[in-house]
Amino acid sequence: MMSLKQPESMDELVYFTRRKTDKSKIIAWVFRENCPVCGKGLMQKPTGPDGKVKVRAKEYICPECKHRVPDKEYEETLTINIEYTCENCGKDGETQAPYKRKSFQGVPSYVFECVHCGTKIPITKKLKEPKKK
Ligand SMILES: [Zn+2]
Ligand SMILES: [Zn+2]
Fold first, then answer.
1. Beta strand pairing status for 68-70 and 59-61?
2. From the CA of 87, which ligand is nearest?
3. Virtual CA dihedral for 53, 58, 61, 67, nearest 10 degrees?
4. What's this model's pTM, rounded to 2 decimal places?
5. What residues have their beta carbon closer than 5 A to ion ligand 1?
6. Using an 8 Å Cβ cutoff, are 42 and 63 in contact?
7. Would you say the C-alpha torsion 7, 8, 12, 17 has a positive or negative sign?
8. What is the 42 CA–ligand 1 centroid distance (Å)?
9. Which end of the chain is more exposed for a tag (fewer CB within 10 A), N or C?
């Protein structure tokens, strides 16, 4: 089994979520990555005059070369790391998927496949459940 790199602090991440139902469990996280232009700076949301990160800013900026990327465009190049227990086969697994939301039963979700049984599993946008068929 492959072993995913574990985050050491929230500062390394652009996304973290923990989900649990009766039969399934998901922990998912996305690391920040280096600037696509200079490769040296770790892309981050801009900081205000008080030095605090503006989490609601709609862009990421490289602290080294000041390259800016709209937040959605940057985030879609990242990878989501997932540890889960599959609702269908009951096994534990680890996998990765593009950090890009797709529509899953009408709800925007990060979707991955169980490495054991191939079931598609959504990580839905918070506070929304997929519609029952
Ligand atoms: Zn840069
Ligand atoms: Zn499975």
1. antiparallel
2. 2
3. -160
4. 0.84
5. 35, 37-38, 41, 62, 64-65, 67
6. yes
7. positive
8. 8
9. C
Residue 31 has pLDDT above 90, yes or no: yes
Taking the C-alpha atoms of residue 31 and residue 90, their distance in angstroms, rounded to an integer, is: 27
Q: What pLDDT was estimated at residue 130?
A: 59
DSSP string, 43-73: PB--B-TTS-B-TT-SEEE-TTT--EEEHHH
- Ligand 2 center to residue 80 CA distance, Å? 18
1 CA → ligand 2 middle, Å: 15
Coil, helix or strand at residue 12: helix
Q: Which ligand is nearest to the CA of 90?
A: 2
Query: For residue 69, which phi and psi values (nearest 5 degrees)?
Result: -135, 135
- Estimate the share of the chain in helix, then strand, then coil, as percent rounded to the nearest 5: 5, 40, 55
Size of the chain in residues: 133
- For 96, 113, 116, 126, the CA distances from 91, given in Å and listed in that order, are 16, 13, 7, 24
> What band does 41 get if pLDDT is binned at 50, 70 and 90?
very high
